[in-house]
Amino acid sequence: MKETEVSEPVYCSEGIRVLRAHDLKAKGWEQRTVGDRTRIEELRGLYSALGFETATTELDPSTFGEACTTCAVSACSGYVALFTRAGKRDG
Fold first, then answer.
1. If you average pLDDT over every residue of the chain, what do you get?
2. Nearest to 32 by CA among 23, 20, 44, 22
3. What proportion of the chain, given as a percentage, has pLDDT over 90?
4. pLDDT digit string (tens) for 13-57?
5. Angle (CA) 79 88 38, round 5°
6. φ and ψ at 6, to 5 degrees?
7. How many helices (H) and strands (E) does the chain have?
8. Distance of CA 55 to the CA centre of its chain
9. Where are the alpha helices (DSSP H) in the chain?
């Protein structure tokens, strides 16, 4: 059997900049994940039910890597990053 050469995987998230990430982190927010809006809304509901505040922010398409083609850029432009921080508790 002939061995097939396997190339290293290229992950789309490498080098992609999340808009406002630095500002959010400075205000105590923690980045949880990046995903399409539908899935993020499900996670947002879950984190809210657990008592977290949630926020989302867009990705910067100009930072998508060389591995991203036009197809990936258009698909990823529908993705957002989800941030959480401990919710404020009443008295």
1. 80
2. 44
3. 38
4. 566 788 889 999 999 999 999 888 889 999 999 999 999 999 999
5. 20
6. -110, 125
7. 3, 3
8. 11
9. 21-26, 37-49, 70-76
Sheet of 79-86, strand order: 30-36, 79-86, 52-58
Tokens 């890597």, residue?
65
| Cα–Cα distance measured from residue 52 to residue 15, given in angstroms and rounded to the nearest whole number | 27
Q: How confident is the model at residue 88 (pLDDT cuts 50, 70, 90)?
A: low
Residue 28 — left, alpha, or beta (φ > 0 → left; ψ -120 to 50 → alpha)? left
Predicted model pTM:
0.73
Please give the single-letter amino acid code of residue 73: V
Token pair for residue 22? 């630095």
pLDDT (0 to 100) of residue 91 = 40
- Paired tokens of 34: 């990046």
Per-residue pLDDT, averaged over 60-67, amounts to: 74
Tokens linked to 9:
């995987």
